[in-house]
Write a structure and sequence with these properties.
Blueprint lengths: L9 E2 L4 E2 L7 H10 L6 E5 L8 E7 L2 E7 L5 E5 L14 E3 L2 E3 L6 E3 L4 E3 L3 H5 L12 E7 L2 E5 L7 H5 L2 H9 L6 E11 L3 H7 L6 H4 L1 H11 L6 H6 L3 E5 L2 E7 L16 H26 E8 L3 E2 L3 E5 L5 E10 L4 H15 L4 H16 L10 E2 L7 E2 L7 E3 L6 H15 L24
Antiparallel strand pairs: 1-2, 2-20, 3-12, 4-5, 4-7, 5-6, 6-11, 8-9, 9-10, 11-12, 13-19, 14-15, 14-22, 15-16, 16-17, 18-19, 21-22
Bound molecules: FE2/S2 (inorganic) cluster and fe (ii) ion (FE2).
FE2/S2 (inorganic) cluster (FES) binds next to loops.
């Protein structure tokens, strides 16, 4: 561990945040150890490795990881680092392979990580090499509704405990259908931003009518989308909730309206409504009537760096983030609907997406401001809604009164602080699971 430093970067009562956390290299280095070195991290989806011996190359923070499905169908997350000198043993994005051979000296690993072959093992090493101890470094892997998470921490609590009651909300997107989901993509790009600015933004409904005004006007005019306004958001019964580091915003939905997804327009609305009507009985059986009909997960983040569905903010330095954009669709959805959602998702939140371009400009400026020698003496103000969040009779977690609030952001930075200061997982608080999970859906799907 690199640090004994104690972080105190947020004043939760005043909502003031120290800007240096968005740009200082030493803080970033501690994040890699204390957060990305031990939190459960989203790394992929089972549909990316459907068959035995499939693999998909991914990352845990900055560390390259090969996600494999071995000959028995078991998942592994293997550090892509040869145990000899350290070269990558896999140089491609995905494929199907029983083994990975390092191209420096030829050490060859099975897809479950075991070191199987070392050229000249008898002669060069005089049979003295401790081969069984030199497999690829393996992370712990667990899944939730097909989404694959991994952690380097041997003492981490279960993924189920880590997600806790956040799953009550997440199920309404990720756990709707018996057939599960399918990940399309990813589209990848680099952004000149600190990774936390993107996570913070997942609960920021405040910026939407301002930052996205022109994009929203285009959508209203050409796609028939409703107009955006602060007034509508204040008047809505929608809310934010926070559980164990995970930020969710959700809509108190109309019983018979399909949940909003990118791709909905005047022309495609019929497809969404038909699909909603056809699948609602199944969703009700899986999630219970209240969650199936009345709770629609909106923007959300999964601590530390999972964003809006299966999208990842992969840190690449204090002022650089590699963004991975997957589109998750129900596997058994009609193909024409999958196509509409994929195109709509890219048009809004892909690399050239209308909304994404507005957002990246904001995050770039927030990150850049934290490098100002004089500006950074003055903290960010995240005081909106202080004292207006708490337990709620119908919804789990710490719930804001309004849809526009900075409650989740303050709690996210508190969680960040907690991880940065924790000596071990024993110091990381997980709220007990208290929500009532009606229906048949489980962690397994
Ligand atoms: S570095 Fe991989 S075999 Fe030598
Ligand atoms: Fe936005």
């Amino acid at each position: 561990m690199s640090t004994t430093r104690q972080y105190a970067v947020i004043d939760p009562a005043a909502g003031k945040i120290d800007r240096r956390i968005f740009s200082e290299q030493a803080i970033y280095d501690d994040e890699m150890e204390m957060i990305f070195g031990r939190a459960w991290l989203m790394i992929g989806h089972e549909s990316l490795v459907p068959a035995v011996d499939d693999f998909f190359h991914t990352y845990m923070g900055e560390d390259p990881v090969i996600l494999t499905r071995d000959g028995q169908g078991r998942l592994h997350a293997l550090l892509n680092m040869c145990r000899h000198r350290g070269n990558r043993v896999c140089r491609v994005d995905d494929g199907n392979a029983k083994r990975f051979m390092c191209t420096y000296h030829g050490w060859t690993y099975r897809n479950d990580g075991a070191l199987e072959h070392v050229p000249g093992e008898s002669e060069a090493y005089y049979d003295a090499l401790d081969r069984p101890s030199l497999g690829l470094i393996e992370a712990r892997v667990e899944t939730y509704a097909g989404i694959i998470f991994a952690t380097w921490a041997k003492d981490a609590r279960s993924l189920e405990a880590y997600l806790g009651d956040a799953r009550w909300y997440l199920d309404t997107v990720f756990n709707r259908r018996d057939g599960g989901m399918q990940a399309l993509g990813p589209m990848k790009w680099l952004e000149p931003v600190n990774w936390k600015t993107m996570v913070d933004n997942c609960s920021d409904n405040y910026h939407v009518p301002t930052s996205h005004l022109s994009s929203a006007r285009v959508q209203s005019r050409y796609l028939g989308r409703p107009r955006l306004s602060h007034e509508d958001q204040f008047a809505s019964p929608n809310k934010h909730a926070f559980v164990n580091g995970h930020s969710v915003t959700f809509r108190d939905a109309d019983d018979n309206a399909p949940r909003y997804m990118h791709g909905v327009s005047k022309e495609t609305m019929r497809l969404f409504q038909e699909y909603h009507d056809a699948t609602t009985p199944e969703v009700e059986r899986r999630l219970g009537t209240f969650r199936a009909r009345r709770v629609q997960l909106a923007n959300h983040s999964i601590f530390p760096n999972g964003i809006l569905g299966l999208r990842l903010a992969l840190p690449r330095g204090p002022l650089k983030t590699e963004f991975w954009h997957f589109v998750l669709v129900d596997r058994d959805m009609p193909e024409d609907l999958k196509r509409v959602i994929r195109i709509g998702s890219q048009a809004n939140n892909g690399a050239a997406g209308m909304f994404e371009q507005d957002d990246v400009d904001n995050w770039r400026q927030v990150s850049a401001a934290s490098t100002s020698r004089f500006g950074r003496r003055h903290p960010q103000d995240l005081s909106m809604g202080v004292g207006h969040a708490g337990p709620h009779p119908d919804y789990p977690g710490l719930v804001s009164e309004r849809y526009i609030s900075e409650s989740n952001q303050r709690l996210f930075y508190r969680r960040w602080e907690e991880f940065m200061n924790a000596g071990s997982w024993a110091d990381i608080r997980l709220d007990p699971i208290k929500a009532h999970f009606d229906g048949t859906a489980t962690m397994r799907g």
